[in-house]
Known about the structure:
It contains 27 helices and 29 strands. With 853 residues, the chain is of the alpha+beta class. The strands form ten sheets. The protein has a four-stranded antiparallel β-sheet with strand order 6-5-14-16. The protein has a four-stranded mixed β-sheet with strand order 10-11-9-12, covered by helices on one side. Strands 19-18-21-20 form a four-stranded antiparallel β-sheet, with no helix packed on it.
Amino acid sequence: MKFSKAYEPNQYEPDIYALWEKSGAFHPTTDKNAKFYSIVMPPPNANGNLHIGHGLTIALEDILTRYHRLKGENTWYIPGADHAGFETWVVYERYLESKGKTRFDYSRDELYDQVWEFVHQQRGNMELQLRSLGASCDWDSLTFTLDPKVVERVYATFQKMWNDGLIYRGKKLVNYCTKHQTAFADIEVTHKEEQGTLWRIAYPLVEPTAELKELVVSTTRPETLFGDTAVAVNPADERYKTIIGKNVKLPLTDREIPIIADEHADMSYGTGVVKITPAHDPNDFEVGQRHELAQITVIGFDGRMTAEAGDDYAGLTTAECRKKALADLEKQGLMRGEESITHSVGHCYKCDTVIEPLLKEQWFVNLQPLAKRAIKTLEANEIRFHPANKKKVLINYLKNIRDWNISRQIPWGIPIPAFVNAEDSTDWIFDTRVDETEITVNGKKYLRDNDTFDTWFSSGQWPYITTDAHPEFYPSSVMETGADLLFQWVGRMIMLGLYITDDIPFKDVYLHGMVLDEKGQKMSKSKGNVINPIELVSEYGSDALRLGLIASRSAGVNQAFSTSKVIASRNLCNKLWNISRLIQQLVDDNPTEETKPELKNYGENWICHQINQASREVQKLLDRYRFAEAGDLLYDLIWNKYADWFLESQKLWKNIPLLKSTLEQILTLLHPFAPFVTETIWQTLSWTTGMLITARWPRAYKVDSQRVADFEDLIAIVTNIRSHFQALPGANSYPILFHDDDLVSDNQLLIQHLTKAPCVPQVEQSKVDGLRLAIPNHHNIYLQIPADIHAKYKASLEERILKLGQEITTLEARLANPNYLEKAPTALVEESRLSLHAKQKLLADMKAELELI
RNA sequence: GGGCGGUUAGCUCAGUUGGCUAGAGCGCGUCUUUGACGUAGACGAGGUCAGAGGUUCAAAUCCUCUACCGCCCACCA
């Protein structure tokens, strides 16, 4: 007897995981006759700790992996670790700051080496945490996003794009965080609705006319005025027609700038005049291109005003400059009012600094052709989405896709393999000798681009890079990741996958929603409401966390974390443990020959039917990614069916071979969801061999369906009796009598056992006395209760007669409807008829009963 | 401005070709030391499925509108 009274996960989990790992069960098989099933894990940050979202990710992916492994498929769950370029860099820069250093104290190569070292010290934590979550992934295949094979593929892709003309170097406005000193892709900028001020500033005409002395522009960013190179009016705007082409004086400077006509100016907005600052506003940049305006950069990459802003302002921060400029304008009498407005402002998603649109030369990818192909593929339904509507959302995004800035000004990442001619800044060449800061090609000196790739440029290629050792696993079976990464990651993997491999990168996409805190708030370090999955594992067990996380959660929906669901799941594990404990006891006490299980009585047929059905349902549900429903179903099977009815009845019969067999099946069915407790039990039971992780999904039992239906009746009878015992005043149990009922006759002992009734004798019909039970198909069962108590039962009987009457009326009305008879499926109509007859018979019995009282 | 969702029991949520009496967990009430489990067992209460209209033999489910809540995208000076 090795089963303790309660299941204590901590005591077993590490050993069980080690056992799996050592056995080689995580390695992929390559049996040509079996299906191939693969999941590429979204690589967690190598440098970080796992958060609760990873708990969900691993739960979902590992359930699928283990399920398919049990089904005998070639299964490969590929783990990864992400260098997480910017994320990690932010952490490291903070560390530098704490040491009183900055990035400018070191060369790029020095910094790269330092971060490598830093990450290396941290790495391993994350992997241990994945183990404690039970991820059955193939550790030998772990890919780090800076592994040479990744870098090679990324370079090959970059070169292919370069050759195909999809990559270009352009000086454009990029989203720049002046604190982190790097550019971002558009998608990485967080937009927030903010209160701002719209100032109206007068720009005096150089040649004032009688009716017009100045143009009043509206702006939320007066500090950019120093970079204005025009003011624009709408070409159709009658107010300004005559002055187009004339000049205005740019306040606070001695420059004059032209008045141009451009559709961008909205006649109905403010005065209809807009200042044009091509170097600091995306719209104005476009206008500037159309009109060949100069681009004057007045804000530097450090967030301070440049010399172009003039001696009085150079060196000020943008905020200081705004204040001073407004004051100076006021002094000069050029302010024409202000109003408060709400507008959307871009922020750095890490430090919340306002993102500056700044002119910078960067590498861009023209995504149009890739997006076009992706849209075609999606519209042809070649990739299935869960939830399905996310496909539409992605298509909508791809239709409006813009060029992707892939340059990052941070040292931690894959260096961009490009060099520029020292003599000619337009002469760029592709070369992978990124370890050298300068190279010589054809006698010319070329200097290295010091930028690195956007992390997503490499992660976007993850599926085919990670599966290259076993190409038969590509495309992967499903990409499971957070719904928030739909554009950033999933969309790019599809585009790049199609581009590079000419194939989809995965067949299905499953997107999970965010795990919110218990109050439904987004978790964040600053709010202090972060839930640590590893702490939950140590408190409740890994299985409980997994089951608790998937409970009541559906694809794509953000949902609060619920401790009570984790506790309920822990209780299920304990229940299963005790089920096993009881069965092991029975096995120990009743030594039998090892024989095939035979189904003898009603309950045995019934439970085997329930297991068959659950097995079928779970397969159906998992094939459709309905994790929560599958979990619920197994909870119900194990607790409400197996333990409460089957095991209770087996205390009488003790069909040892069947107890063993059914327990094995149940353990197998639950294994994908709760791998630790099921394997622990498997390893503890005296008769099981091998490991559950590599067992096979159970085969269906052959059952007698009449017996199954009969046992359902028995359940109804027992429940009805228990209900009476509870509801009737007086003693809490009474003898049960019956006549002419084979089912009850066959199961007298069982009914007695389950109801705790003193006895269940068969009697002559004439001698029957007592309360008659109202059970469909079983009208001859009675409770022998004293007359006075019987009388008290009258009221409840009348109530039920009334209710039954209503049900009968509804059914009669339905069956009297010719349209129903004609149009509803015949099986349904037949069912209604049967139901009506049963109820009518029952009603008659109950009425007779009432007369007797 | 464009797009996508949500509103079901006290709480958190399931409910995907429309079809028996709308489910679960937690919570709540009553009872129970029955050969594993009190992290338990038994029984029970609790819902006009946001509102209005429509389609249908039949609507929580499909359509329209309304109200409230949310998310994403967008270059709103």
